[in-house]
Protein 1
Amino acid sequence: MEAAENTLEVSVWRGGEDGEYQTFQVPAQENQTILDVVSWIQQYADPTLTYRFACRVGMCGSCAMMVNGKPRWTCRTHVKKATEGADKIEIAPLRNLPVIKDLAADMDPFFDKWVKAGAVHHPTRTRDDAIETITPDEPGRVEAAKAIECINCSVCYAGCDTVANNPDYLGPAALQRAWTLYNDAKDADRQAILDNVSGVGGCHNCHTQGSCTMYCPNELDPLSAIAGLKRVTAQNFFKRKG
Amino acid sequence: MIRPHRTHPLWYAYMAHRLSGLALVLFLPAHFYVLGLALTDMAAFDGFMTFASHPLVKLAEFGLVFLLAIHIFGGLRLLALEFLPWSAPQKTLAAATVAVAFLLSGTFFLQAV
């Protein structure tokens, strides 16, 4: 590979919540991801830079950051895609989460809400029973299959303005998980799922802004999953009244 | 300034719906008050009607009807999005059908008046 002549001007968030941006000059390459840029800074400019990554191939969901104001999985985001023609890159920790240091956000609130959304399987059978056969073309299975590729990267959570305005809101990922479980024929307590997602901070807080679906790196559709939850909780409300 | 993560059509649709709703909240009390004048104070009502025939007020009325249209169709959009589990192309077709129907009937109406 030829040595790059050009450099990128990269502003990186340093410190905690009250930190500030620090600018680095990073050699530009023809093929370069945002994670490559961050790694270059840590290896050649400032070894104290804190950030998080693991697999580098878009499977683990640990490297998400805000790049030029948009949530991105940095390992699969090409510099040219993220800059959208601009000549500067601004990299910050994920939005809507506490900052630990530099580019590492505290993911605890995000994962706590998965638990709060009741994303727990309620079995229909014991280990002594045969496994229930589910064919791939069953409607419930088709609906559930849409969301099982979620990698818990929190990109949707960082892009959501409803999360930003309401700290109790469960967020797109946790609600999408609940919708997946609701459609699982092997789940014995769908009412518990609906109760968990229809209270304070539940699916009805969603303002249908669609940033979750817009930015999901795996091209999942939490917006439609949340719409599904709204639909069944509404039906459930009238059924219970009747 | 609109922050970068908000620059997509669904977010704009959300904001248009919200702002048109707020504007209508401000407008409707005045609207009902003026309508109420027709029952309680005919002279004041006629005075307002003279004022309302001014071209600038007509222009403002266009704005109000526009806000109302944005809010109605924004609401229909939300209902379709959340309560009709259709695929995206089906929804696009349905929206296109409504738009064409609205255009044709609107043209017919304009020719009639």
Note: The helical segments of chain B are 9-40, 42-52, 55-83, 88-112.
Protein 2
Amino acid sequence: MKIPYYPGCTLKTTAKPFEDTTKAVSEAVGIELIEMPRWNCCGTVYSLASDDLMHQLAPIRNLIRVQDMGYDRVTTLCSMCYNTLEQANQLVKSDPEKLEKMNSFMDQEEDYTGGVTVVHYLTVLKEMGFDSLPVKNPLKGLTVVPYYGCLLLRPEEISIDNPERPTVMAELLTSLGATVVDYPYKLECCGSYHTVNHKEVVCEKTYHILSSARKRGAEAVVLSCPLCEFNLDFRQKDLEQELAPMPILYFSQLLAISLGLFDALEFDQHYVDPKPLLKEKGLLR
Amino acid sequence: MTDTIKTRMIKVYIMGKEYDVPEGLTIMKAMEYAGYRFIRGAGCRAGFCGACGTIFRKKDEYKFKTALACQTPAEDGMYLTELPFVPANKAEYELEELASGPNIIVSLYPEIARCVSCNTCTKACPQDLQVMDYIQASLRGDIEQAAELSFDCLQCGLCAARCPADIVHYHVGQLARRLYGKFILPKSLHLKERNDEIEAGVFDQEMENLTTMDLDQLKKSYIERDIEK
């Protein structure tokens, strides 16, 4: 399957391991990711002001680039990019007047026709069927929890799964051989950009999420958002409470391990090093 | 009665005042014809230095246009002005003390994170550069692409003057090119070798011979020189 891939800024910098492992996985399972040759920032955080079209230009311009490539779907990894692109997409699809205004402002581009759909990479995998994944190195003996946060599931209109009771990541991880346990904080917000000016807010969230996961027996938390990764991982160093270090992993990293794609792995950008846990379970070569 | 070739005159409006100027002049020359002196906002007069970035409007059009005043012909009905300088913010840094990393540009120019991809900068660029794209590349730490896309920048500053997010694109591009040159481009080893040879005096005698030769001898040796194929 061929699908355009919108990377997003973070995937090229602090979330490089997320992208590298996904590229390796895609190649192994027959998904041809066509990285967009030209793209800009997704817009980072969908603007909720109904008359603020200036902040919708960035996401819609990206969708015009997909349209220019001759495709009607684009996939992305970062939950924030997914959320911003698809919310803006739905705004202009449902409001032709706003779309016309933006098209007339972007007079050096082709008009956006509203014909593109943004699909998260988890959805692409799910469409292919998690059972069809060529698992060579099952994640036996590893107990994990998925962490969805907000951006994959809210608002409902763009949710990649049931927004109250999502199962997509648990299904994926189970099919990779991991033991998945449930816990009450999988939909909790991580505190998002409060991490810049109010890191105590994020520390409190991080503690609740991770200690709950720990109590249920989780040995690692699995997610899809570079900002959640930063908050749940790096804020562990600022916690006031005692908490044994909890490794935070992108779902693509566990996918790469289970498919035996060890060369694509890189764990240098984590605060809590996941390697000791993965070695203990005999999952790293 | 003498025949004279009559120059057709056009009307231009400089700072709102009407002037008749000969057709075929550049914006800069038309303004000088009308009596303006360019003390600032003029430089090489050949489209290379970027000092004469200007803003204008054409007759019966609503759009502001931007151009280099020394490269753009004045047209009948144009509204013109002087734009001597763009007082843009410029980050201070010691290149030798910078480390190349994904966030280096955004740490010196944090306002690039305010880019909403409106593309106004690209529309303003008289060099037809993809200005927005090099700001976006800078934002995601792609120094190489930012350097390449901004390579033909003349530093005229029109991008910054038009930007609704107050980004100073041309200084950002310059920083990207400096970082690219210092940290990313491969070092040219032959240049170092030649510098070492020069410092060791390998060419001193040859230079001495050349500078003391009389003119005829110099011409002769020029004609008879070895030409590298």
Note: Chain B has three domains: 9-80, 95-184, 198-223.
